[in-house]
Amino acid sequence: MKISIITVNRNDAAGLRKTILSVAAQTAKPWQFIVIDGASDDGSAELLQEYAESISYSVSEPDKGIYDAMNKGIAQADGDYCIFLNSGDVFCGPTVLEALQDSGAEADIICGNAIILEEPPRRKTAPGEITLRTLFNGSICHQAALISTRLLKEENYDSSLKIVADRKFFLNNLVLKGCSYQNINVDIVDYDITGYSARNRLASEQEWQKVLAEMLPERILLDYGRGTSGALYGNGAYERFFLETGRRNWRRPIYRMVRGALSLLGIIVPAARFARQFPKQTD
Fold first, then answer.
1. Would you say domain 3-200 falls under CATH 3.30.450.20?
2. Alpha-helical regions (H) of 32-142
3. Could you tell me whether strands 109-116 and 145-148 are parallel, antiparallel, or unpaired per DSSP bridges?
4. Which 3 state secondary structure label does DSSP give 250?
5. What is the pTM of this model?
6. Within the chain, what is the greatest distance between any pair of CA atoms?
């Protein structure tokens, strides 16, 4: 298994250096490392020259956005699989590619674990199976996914989208086309949550709602709970609060506070003892 690592960058020289060093430290061979820089003016282009021996292909030129840059990388890829590391993302260790090659996985899309760099760090494991529900209100971690180069060359990312083209690709190929999927228990990437999509969750969810409306029939949207995600839209204050509590990891504390209040109410008011039936832990 030959893996093509694709990194896109725009004015993040510090993050780019971290990613380059992480790739260069990999013990497994062969691999291909492609860096697409969007005409940065912060010294990123100079880094491409500094680490030229570790980079298989690089270019620094204007692009039309992150997915246009990724598509440029895909055009240069010659590995069996592609994996996308944004500037600032790093492999979990020097033997990650070796572990991927030794896994024996051969599916169209292979997904491992991501270490989310927040306080405290947490592991996002790959789902055991993919269904429409998996991708309707969530996604697999793009940086922890090995994607068949053949698939990516057949269907590039939708460069008209700013944030969710990878989610659209996964939905189309894994659900609508039925491409094969396999999860593996390998920690692949330390995921930098300061990336564009993480910093623009509201815009991301709004763009995703538009993609769902374009790709899925209305009755499926209704069946899969337009209210689960779509009901947030149209109330800017509420949706900002909902997404901000998720970003700050406040949802569990808020849940515990509400459960505690209901439990106290159940002690004071016998009729409210139903509250004690609430689960003590959430995902």
1. no
2. 44-50, 66-76, 96-102, 132-136
3. antiparallel
4. coil
5. 0.79
6. 72
